[in-house]
Task: structure prediction
Amino acid sequence: MIIIMLMSLETLFAGSRSVYLAAGKVLFRSAAPVSEMFMVNAGQIHLCRHTVHGTKMVLQRATPGMVLAEASAYSDSYHCDAIAATDSIVQTLPKSVFLSALAADPDLAATWAATLARGVQAARFRSEIRSLPKVADRLDAWLGAGNPLPQKGRWQDVAHELSVTREALYRELARRRKGTKE
Amino acid sequence: MIIIMLMSLETLFAGSRSVYLAAGKVLFRSAAPVSEMFMVNAGQIHLCRHTVHGTKMVLQRATPGMVLAEASAYSDSYHCDAIAATDSIVQTLPKSVFLSALAADPDLAATWAATLARGVQAARFRSEIRSLPKVADRLDAWLGAGNPLPQKGRWQDVAHELSVTREALYRELARRRKGTKE
DNA sequence: TCCTTCATATGATCATAATCATGTTGATGA
DNA sequence: TCATCAACATGATTATGATCATATGAAGGA
Result:
């Protein structure tokens, strides 16, 4: 009897060590050597880079199920800081274990590559949306990509996703309601 | 004697069929089934999506060495159009061959994943840069990431990368020259 | 019920980039 | 040399979003 074990990224991290991080705690710092890979289990971890002026740029907002700083698997040291945005739990796996699991299991490697490829797609789409100068165009492009307008109470999230102020989005939505009414 | 054959993505595509595309020619259309993977050899291929209003969004500008629409390897049909921006040459490989090469060679799979991971990183960075409201901040972030200001004659490329008009970039550069002079 | 809080909503003002217009410079070729 | 072209440069004007200030409404807790 042959047991086929279909391994997903979640199951790979599932048996691993969990670490609890209070909001604001640092998981790793830029330039530190990469020895572990992290998957977010609960909460949210931000991957940040700082400019000379101290301006903070958030490059990834990792939510449950996401692997943090994917490119670190192929780098010796981190290029960003990772900080818990909320109280969080991350699961950690030695980088070497992570890489050998990928090398040993072509299906898992394909899953990983597919995840990354979709990540590239999503990030490219976000960067193109943000290059549109008008709020109306950003909203059109976002809705046109199949994203649904969420329930009231979650509109600010959309504003943030489109990188406009909530006021600007409220106004655009108001314009549309007015437009369809008459 | 053992010959170790280190396979790169380029070598994988190297022996494959080449296709010449005149500027403006369509390589594939959205919704078409994915049967081939493409690597750009010369020229530039744009991956485009169209909104309801007919606005065109360019999601990838694939230059030589880049694989086009990476995520299509894990999808049955395309979600974008691919159009030659200039006269171009692409090399094509059946998707099944591409995927089995990855499955058969863990090193190649790692190379592919590393490429994708860096693509994610780069695209995330671009989208964050474009969420900065001021030209000065975008330029700072871009220079701070280690990008050098190119020779005169290439400044427009930077303006495009930062998603600002060339005039806005010229003015910002002029401000800086003035600032450092006194 | 009342109070607090947060998301939505909208007006007023301001800052800034886009746009349009025009000029300058430098490289290339006839 | 002159014509041409493209990139750099900059001024004037306009469009648009950010910001600040409030207000409204709904949900949840004391």
User: Anything to note?
Assistant: Chain B touches chain A through 46 residues (CB under 8 Å). The two ends of chain B are 68 Å apart (CA to CA). Chain B is about 40% helix and 20% strand.
